[in-house]
Amino acid sequence: MPTAYSRPSSNTRSYIRRHDLAPQYEYLRSEINEALGRVLGSGRYILANEVHDFEREFAGYIGCDYALGVGSGTDALVLALRAAGIQPGDEVITSTYAPTPTPAAILMAGGIPVFSDVEADTCLMDTRNLEELMTEKTRFIIPVHIFGLPCNMREIAEMARKYDLLVVEDAAQAHGSRIGDKKAGSFGSLSCFSFYPTKNLGGYGDGGMVLTNDPGYHETLLRLRNYGKQDDPFTSYVQGVNSRLDELQASVLRVKLEHLDRMNRERARRAEMYRKGLKDTPLVFLNTRPGYLESVYTNHHILTVLCPDLRDALRAHLELQGIQTNIYYPTLLHQMPAYSPFVKKSQGFETAENLSRQALALPLYPELDVEDVEYVIEKILDFFA
Ligand SMILES: Cc1ncc(COP(=O)(O)O)c(C=O)c1O
Question: Is the shortest distance between the CB of 194 and ligand 1 below 6 Å?
Answer without folding.
Answer: yes
